[in-house]
Task: structure prediction
Amino acid sequence: MKYCKKCLQPDTRPNEKFINGVCSICRYYDSIEDIDWNSRYEQLQDYLKNRKKKSVKNSFQKFDCIIGVSGGKDSTRQALWVRDKLKLNPLLWSLSYPPEQICDIGTKNISNLINLGFDLVVSSPSPKTWRNLIKESFFKFSNHMRTSELALFSSVPQAALAYKIPIIFWGETPMQVGDLSAVGEEGWDGNNMKNSNTLSSGHKWMIDMGYKREKLIPYIYPDKNQFELQDLQIIYLGWYLGDWSLTNNAKYSNLNGLINRSEDYVNTGDIHGTSALDDNWQIMNQMIKYYKFGFGFVTEIICEDIQRGHIDRKSGIKWIEKYDGKCSDEYIKSFCKYIDISVDEFWWQVRKSANRDLFLVKNDGQIVPKFKVGEDL
Ligand SMILES: [Zn+2]
Result:
């Protein structure tokens, strides 16, 4: 495992490619240093004006655009910016988790968006299928979120097509999250999202479980032809917002009613308390990711803080060493209860998937890193 020379990104991140020892995200931030953000904003305005002219014929069309929301920091900021700055009329779409999964803060933050005056649709895939798929994806990929991510990503274009809404606004660009496979024809173009690390694996494994396609509709991302038929365009707002970042989005959204987590960092592995506000099992998944790839939530936060000049590399190492990959036992227990397995079975699977090049799995079950944060292995 090699670390980026500038931040603390490891090269074990899927679809990452270092050039001269520098990660793709640092290269992206270097490349935007001299951007004229006002002129980018004007380009967006021009694009929207032209699109609006083209769309006028459709009398059923009420909404200018659609935004997928969890009620968290990024989606709250997107919704407010699109409505108040771009003066568009967005439909917000929230794919809801089952009651066993969604956190109390998550429901409050969705209510906050409704209280801010937005039109918001909540959709829920069949809870029985959801539970079976979550269990299968945990044991098959050591990543139960393959299920929820497919549904989250697919629900928004599905809704846009059904409601004949021409534009989807998405948050960060693939360059900002280091997923080069999803980069579009231009930086703002999100129509290549289907190739992202999250979506490219598709839903075939669900079919292999014996499910018929009609039971899997919420998990199937619309194909290229459907996008083209309705001239549906995904636009990354991260391309137009020069100050887009986890920290800034949280500050902006907190001022507009967003509630953060208040738990100790050792329970959440999130030193800002602003991520995965609606779902504790995402924290658990970040812990598993840590054992698979050698990095978790804290590495992502610290890297962005370094790239944004909020912290130096040396101080960042201390935060990562102390809190990366942490997760409360309570979250693990609630997940095990949900998919009806024992905590021992859970850890058996996690140990099985731990990267043996990066970690030593001891006889007593402890998983110990072989690497030192910031030093190549
Ligand atoms: Zn970097």
Residues 271-369 form one domain.
